[in-house]
From TrEMBL:
<dbReference type="GO" id="GO:0004777">
    <property type="term" value="F:succinate-semialdehyde dehydrogenase (NAD+) activity"/>
</dbReference>
<dbReference type="InterPro" id="IPR016161">
    <property type="entry name" value="Ald_DH/histidinol_DH"/>
</dbReference>
<feature type="active site">
    <location>
        <position position="259"/>
    </location>
</feature>
<dbReference type="GO" id="GO:0009450">
    <property type="term" value="P:gamma-aminobutyric acid catabolic process"/>
</dbReference>
<dbReference type="InterPro" id="IPR016162">
    <property type="entry name" value="Ald_DH_N"/>
</dbReference>
<protein>
    <submittedName>
        <fullName>NAD-dependent succinate-semialdehyde dehydrogenase</fullName>
    </submittedName>
</protein>
<dbReference type="InterPro" id="IPR016163">
    <property type="entry name" value="Ald_DH_C"/>
</dbReference>
<dbReference type="InterPro" id="IPR050740">
    <property type="entry name" value="Aldehyde_DH_Superfamily"/>
</dbReference>
<dbReference type="Pfam" id="PF00171">
    <property type="entry name" value="Aldedh"/>
</dbReference>
<dbReference type="InterPro" id="IPR015590">
    <property type="entry name" value="Aldehyde_DH_dom"/>
</dbReference>
<dbReference type="InterPro" id="IPR029510">
    <property type="entry name" value="Ald_DH_CS_GLU"/>
</dbReference>
<comment type="similarity">
    <text>Belongs to the aldehyde dehydrogenase family.</text>
</comment>
<keyword id="KW-0560">Oxidoreductase</keyword>
<feature type="domain" description="Aldehyde dehydrogenase">
    <location>
        <begin position="22"/>
        <end position="482"/>
    </location>
</feature>
Length: 487
């Protein structure tokens, strides 16, 4: 039987977590976690500072050698047990996630399944870190290549996928034999902290994963970077913050993985199957209420099918039910905070002032909570702010085009390059456009590209490195060459 969310939170570790122990922040400070559907406080969490950061990174440094020496099979079994525990407690985790973040329960359960899969995937990859052995071309040297843990890692996750972003980083770090200091987002820390408790129950040794939640990220993360102990930073978040972290990491030449902002184009060609295109657009736009870096930000539609596509998408969007994500029948939950609603309001108002037509939605929902209705805008001008800004809300912006060349040029006219989507029934067009689009990922006739078995990441200012797939664990290992002369 699923516990109430009050009981779940009451049993949760909500302090600073260092060397296997939960404790208050050194300063005694706390911050509140709010339910975005009601605006009510649901928990208080230790608000860590510089002293807590020093304790966490110091512990990670002391534990690194012993953890790296643990056999790969043992690390794999820990991840496998953690996967099974998450699956067993999917209903509890989904309820907790919905309460602190807002997404509907059905979608939260989907994230639990997706996030758990990273632990299963990397449990299987743990024993498959490969090396190489061969002679040099001149035959005079034996070249042996091995891979070792990169060392203590700094992990920073965002608020929009509090379980999946944690498992996507923690999973490969454990698999590779790295210790960690972890800073979840202060808007949604509870789901991530639940994962920490799961890993402890699964047998993760004390000191391997150390956690500091904080409302002062700079006061915690920068000391970690400058500690001389950390050897890698993995960050998911905005591009401006990513740039700042890259500058800081350069001081100590830390390895970095950066999964940053997006401005995804969703291209609907004239030969697209309308059922497929509308369904994919709904998935790419409305996942997480649009609060996803992979969200379709600019929906580029061939002029010949713009009216039909706009009509059918508007019907789908208008039929969605907005409300508290814990209530049965809710399709669209609240945005994460008041500031997020304000941003969406400003972007929509700007587009309308520049000539966009509102096909549905278009103004915030009155009452408690941080709600904004599903909205479709047609005829969005090229100079509208939402053409260059991540909307991060349930707003579909339709822009017409007349040729493939024009669509590709419009799609690539951004500093970002995380993901692009193409709707077409022509295989040659699909392949050609996927090659021309400047993005780390391309979805053909689908609105979902994320998969634990596939590499996730972007190009340009959408980031560096990849998470998941066969390459995910490579981000957490160093390559070592041992050269032996042939005698």
């Amino acid at each position: 039987m699923t516990r109430s969310v009050t009981d779940i939170i009451a049993a949760l570790g909500t302090g600073v977590h260092v060397d296997g122990q939960w404790s208050d922040a050194a300063s005694g400070a706390t911050f509140e976690v709010v339910n975005p559907a009601t605006g009510e406080v649901i928990a208080t969490v230790a608000d860590g500072g510089a002293d807590d950061a020093a304790a966490a990174i110091g512990c990670a440094g002391r534990t690194q050698a012993s953890w790296a020496a643990v056999p790969a099979r043992e690390r794999a079994e820990i991840l496998r047990r953690a996967y099974e525990l998450i699956v067993d407690r999917a209903d509890e985790l989904a309820l907790l996630m919905t309460t602190e973040m807002g997404k509907p329960l059905a979608e939260a359960k989907g994230e639990v399944a997706y996030g758990a899969e990273f632990f299963r995937w990397f449990s299987e990859e743990t024993c498959r870190v490969r090396g190489d052995a061969r002679r040099s071309p001149d035959g005079k040297t034996r070249l042996m290549v091995t891979h070792e843990p990169v060392g203590p890692c700094i992990l920073i996750t965002p608020w929009n996928f509090p379980l999946a972003m944690a498992t996507r980083k923690i999973g490969p770090a454990i698999a590779a034999g790295c210790t960690m200091v972890f800073k979840p987002a202060n808007l949604t820390p509870l789901t991530s902290l639940y994962v920490v408790d799961v890993l402890r129950e699964a047998g993760l040794p004390d000191g391997v994963l150390n956690v500091v939640c904080t409302t002062d990220p700079g006061g915690v993360v920068e000391p970690w970077i400058d500690s001389g102990i950390a050897r890698k930073l993995s960050f998911t978040g905005s591009t401006p913050v990513g740039r700042m972290l890259l500058e800081q990491c350069a001081r100590g030449v830390l390895r970095t993985s950066m999964e940053l902002g997006g401005n995804a184009p969703f291209v609907v060609c004239e030969d697209a199957d309308m059922d497929t295109a509308v369904g994919a657009a709904m998935a790419a736009k409305m996942r997480n209420m649009g609060e996803a870096c992979t969200s379709a930000n600019r929906i580029l539609v061939h002029r010949s099918v713009l009216d039909e596509f706009g009509r059918r998408l508007t019907e789908k969007m208008s039929a969605l039910t907005v409300g508290d994500g814990t209530r049965e029948g809710t399709d669209v939950g609240p945005l994460v905070e008041e500031k997020a609603v304000t941003k969406v309001v400003e972007l929509v108002d700007d587009a309308v002032e520049r000539g966009a037509e509102v096909l549905c939605g278009g103004s915030r929902v009155e009452g408690p909570g941080y709600f904004y209705p599903p909205t479709v805008l047609s005829g969005v001008a090229a100079d509208s702010d939402l053409m260059s800004t991540e909307i991060f809300g349930p707003v579909a912006a339709l822009i017409p085009f007349d040729s493939d060349d024009e669509a590709v040029a419009m799609a690539n006219d951004t500093e970002f390059g995380l993901v692009s989507y193409v709707m077409t029934e022509n295989l040659d067009r699909a392949m050609t456009m996927s090659e021309r689009l400047q993005a780390g990922m391309v979805g053909i006739n689908t609105g979902i590209v994320s998969n634990p078995a596939a590499p996730f990441g972007g190009i340009k200012q959408s980031g560096l490195g990849r998470e998941g797939g066969l390459t995910g664990i490579e981000e957490f290992v160093e390559t070592k060459l041992v050269a032996i002369p042939v005698r």
